UniProtKB/TrEMBL annotation:
Residues 56-150 form the Methyltransferase type domain. Keywords: Methyltransferase, Plasmid, Transferase. InterPro entries: Methyltransf_11, Methyltransf_Superfamily, SAM-dependent_MTases_sf. Gene3D superfamilies: Vaccinia Virus protein VP39. GO terms for biological process: methylation. This is Methyltransferase domain-containing protein. GO terms for molecular function: S-adenosylmethionine-dependent methyltransferase activity. It comes from Shinella sumterensis.
């Protein structure tokens, strides 16, 4: 682990480790089979093309996106720096031969140069402590022409319409009680971490595009998250349906030149 941000990274790791057992219970984390899995998998399939490819999944957490990549027939290295998160993922995916778990720092993986055809991460970029160095690290790991897929969002500033959804969620919380699995139990700690992060004021594609370009990435493209949100709404209760309207989410792809 890189020493310069040791305290912040330790805090981030401890936060996620403590959330590992209930992480899948919070809406938006577990990816149910059916329309929602199909919607998350579509951009992955489009990016990777025919199997098998060597795919590095960064910050795999409890292994939900891992399943989608693996089920397409690819060879997956699923990395996370929280042993507690990896333990949940390992238990879910026991016995899968094309899947390797790796306890490592996504900002400094120690993996060999040009060893992957693609890198995929969901909900990691917002929590990077050194984004510029990290994008250069990801560039180094990809073979020429290799691709990066980022699922992420601006978790700091609700959309204009999202503010109304947020108010309705607070009202539901007051009437039926808060959903303690949805960040609530640790929200003060979450807020303190966010304040210390480079993207703590919110992650927008326009902020990371120049950083990716200066790391050497080309063909940077944005794709709508809306098909995923629509699929999530199909089986969600009212409070969780409202959650899909609160924040601006995006899917970004690019290519190593
Ligand atoms: C919001 S969770 C997302 C988990 C998973 N990607 C998903 O979408 O279900 C964030 C994950 O990132 C991991 N993480 C955060 N910073 C990391 C880093 N520098 N290196 C490796 N893992 C990291 C945490 O341990 C946690 O599992």
């Amino acid at each position: 682990m890189d020493g310069r941000n040791f305290d912040l990274k330790e805090e981030i790791r401890d936060y996620w480790s403590r959330r590992s057992r209930t992480f899948d219970l919070a809406f938006g984390h577990r990816i149910p089979a059916g329309p929602e899995a199909d919607a998350w998998q579509r951009p992955i399939r489009d990016l990777l093309g025919p199997a098998p490819k060597r795919v590095l999944e960064l910050a795999c957490g409890t292994g939900e996106v891992t399943r989608l990549i693996h089920d397409l027939g690819h060879d997956v290295t699923a990395l996370d720096f929280s042993e507690a998160m990896l333990a949940v993922a390992r238990a879910k995916h026991a016995g899968k031969t094309r899947l390797r778990f790796l306890l490592a720092d996504a900002e400094n993986t120690l993996e060999p140069d040009q060893s992957y055809d693609a890198i995929i991460c969901r909900h990691l970029v917002w929590t990077l402590t050194r984004p510029e160095e990290t994008f250069r690290e990801w560039f180094r790991l990809l073979r020429p022409g290799g691709r990066l897929l980022v699922f992420d969002g601006d978790w700091a500033t609700p959309k204009f319409t999202g503010r109304a959804a947020g108010l309705l969620i607070s009202l539901i919380d007051r009437i039926i009680g808060p959903d303690t699995n949805y960040d609530g139990a640790m929200s003060e700690r979450h807020a303190a971490i966010m304040n210390a992060l480079p993207f703590g004021a919110g992650l927008r594609p326009a902020t990371i595009e120049p950083l990716l370009a200066s790391a050497g990435f080309r063909d940077i493209a944005l794709h709508s998250h809306e098909p995923i949100a629509r699929a999530q709404r199909r089986n969600a209760n009212l409070r969780n349906r409202l959650r899909t309207f609160v924040y601006r989410r995006f899917i970004l792809t690019c290519r190593r030149s």
